[in-house]
Amino acid sequence: MKNGFFRVGAAVPKLKVGGCRYNSDEIIGLIGRGEKEGIRILVFPELSITGYTCGDLFHQETLLGDAKAQLDRILEETKNSSCVSLIGMPLSIDNQLFNCAVAIQKGRILGVVPKTYVPNYSEFYEQRWFASGKNALRDAIILCGQEVPFGDDLLFEDAKGEICFGIELCEDLWVPIPPSSFQAMAGALIIFNLSASNEIVGKHEYRRELVRQQSARCIAGYVYSSSGVNESTTDVVFGGHAMICEYGTLLRESERFVSDEQLIFSEIDAMKLMNDRRKNTSFMELGKDDGKRFRKVKFELEEFEAEDITRYVAPHPFVPSDENSRDKRCSEIFAIQTSALAKRMRHTGLKHAVIGVSGGLDSTLALLVTAKAFDLLNIPRENILAITMPGFGTTDATYTNAMNFMKSMKVEIREINIKDACLQHFKDIGHDPSIHDVTYENVQARERTQILMDIANKEGGLVIGTGDLSELALGWCTYNGDHMSMYAVNSSIPKTLVSFLVKWVADNMLEAKAKEVLYKILNTPISPELLPPDAKGEINQKTEDIIGPYELHDFFMYHMLRYGATPGKILLLAKKAFEGKYSDDTIKKWLKVFVKRFFSQQFKRSCLPDGPKVGTVSLSPRGDWRMPSDAVADSWLAELEEE
């Protein structure tokens, strides 16, 4: 299964209550549509052959017999379909009637799963007709001339062992520990639910959250299909609610109260799910003692062309696309940063902070965090020593931005020009200052860090680090220069998120004058400003021209570190996310740069200063990322050469 993607679907057919032949025609038609769309597993609603609202007709032999006959016809009509279809129907077995899901493929019945939890409260009275699957007396039945596995202990696994799925029916999801929880621990990566959940005010929101949360708890895909508007409305109404969720994210959802049939589909990322299950060492703990054992039914699975994925791929995975969600995220992250720094200040007993301010985004965010932390501690902002240190590459624009920003923050401002000190150092080490190489650049970065550290010692202060997560991933920092501090408040903030945080603070926490300065900083190109300005006095060293767009690197970093994605898969996802913005060759070029730099620069990450984790991705050697500094990138780069 290349890159781990697997297409699943949920169907809500038109229906006639008790009209088994009509209902089966609809099911056959939707299976055909699903086959054309490349759906590999398709789930239908509960009791989809008969209709859910048949009432005491479930005690009629005519209905039960016709349901079997129509299943036989569905098998014949879909015998050439490789799509696994999960169909609901009643089955009479050993003096009991069971509400069942029947899994079929290519004219073969793979297995039959009875409903475990049969509701009998409020508008539900299923126990009048159906028994729980727990009461089954056998583990195999004869159905449509085939001997097939039967029971609530079935899981379905493809012949290669790459995809395993489980089935539950409606109420099974609503109990404290759903069957899908045990199915997931037994290996099911995807759960399918055949449901008939009626509509009352607000229920659809709760139902959506239930499906979403169960997919999150199980680290699984969850595909749900509920009966549509053509069920009986004698007492209740059904809306036809279908959903596809993955690990807490809603990928696709049907429209409710639609009279026509509906078919939704999306792709589940099995590779991502498996990666997180392996990392989550608590995931399997409950399964050790529950005593639940499952039988696995094998089936054939056709390969899915991963290049055809339809699901949305966010180009900026660290930044919510919805403005309201983004504002909430920024508020929370800023609170984490400020609370972390406040704790460190309280613990050390220090009353001063020392921070270098360049007029760039990172130092701007760090000073904003520091100012807020001092406000929380009731320490005057004058105790923040904000130091700007012009060097060979400092432009008038960034210098002015830095000075105006520090003034607006009402902190103590100090200006220390580093040119003479750097020239002296060049002389001491025998370096020609006209050679603008890595020595020329790093001398400036280390001189600035030396100044900050020494002033912190002199004043009894804490040096606040300004470097961000993206720079750490790429090693775009000078070892023992801007790489080092006494507390690094931005260490878990990726570059693509820094600008949104600064903008959020500007819009929500600052007065007009300070806001105006921040907007100017936001419009300044990203640069370390270590090389002299151009002939016009403007920035001559733009970071993204050298190492590539940060939005690409943040995308690569997220998928590699968060989900262990392979380079080939990252490339596929990036092509989808940045379609029309970057060419395939450009994406591949910068992905190679990312991989090479990420492996070669681990030594800088192995000795990072303390700093707060704010999101799911962090590179702290004490927390999320432990990697040998001499690991090689050969396998990762070789895979890219094959793409």
UniProtKB/TrEMBL annotation:
The keyword NAD applies. One of its GO terms (cellular component) is cytoplasm. One of its GO terms (molecular function) is NAD+ synthase activity. Residues 6-270 form the CN hydrolase domain. GO terms for biological process: NAD+ biosynthetic process. Deamido-NAD(+) binds at residues 442, 471, 476-479, 604. L-glutamine binds at residues 121, 197, 203. InterPro entries: C-N_Hydrolase, C-N_Hydrolase_sf, Gln-dep_NAD_synthase, NAD+_synth_C, NAD/GMP_synthase, NAD_synthase, Rossmann-like_a/b/a_fold. Pfam families: CN_hydrolase, NAD_synthase. The active site is at residues 46, 115, 170. Coiled coil: none annotated. CDD domains: GAT_Gln-NAD-synth, NAD_synthase. Pathway: Cofactor biosynthesis; NAD(+) biosynthesis; NAD(+) from deamido-NAD(+) (L-Gln route): step 1/1. ATP binds at residues 356-363, 466. It catalyses: deamido-NAD(+) + L-glutamine + ATP + H2O = L-glutamate + AMP + diphosphate + NAD(+) + H(+). Keywords: ATP-binding, Ligase, NAD, Nucleotide-binding. Its EC number is 6.3.5.1. In the C-terminal section; belongs to the NAD synthetase family. Belongs to the NAD synthetase family. NCBIfam families: nadE, PRK02628.1. PANTHER family: GLUTAMINE-DEPENDENT NAD(+) SYNTHETASE, NH 3 /GLUTAMINE-DEPENDENT NAD + SYNTHETASE. Catalyzes the ATP-dependent amidation of deamido-NAD to form NAD. Uses L-glutamine as a nitrogen source. HAMAP family: NadE_glutamine_dep (MF_02090). This is Glutamine-dependent NAD(+) synthetase. It comes from Acetivibrio mesophilus.
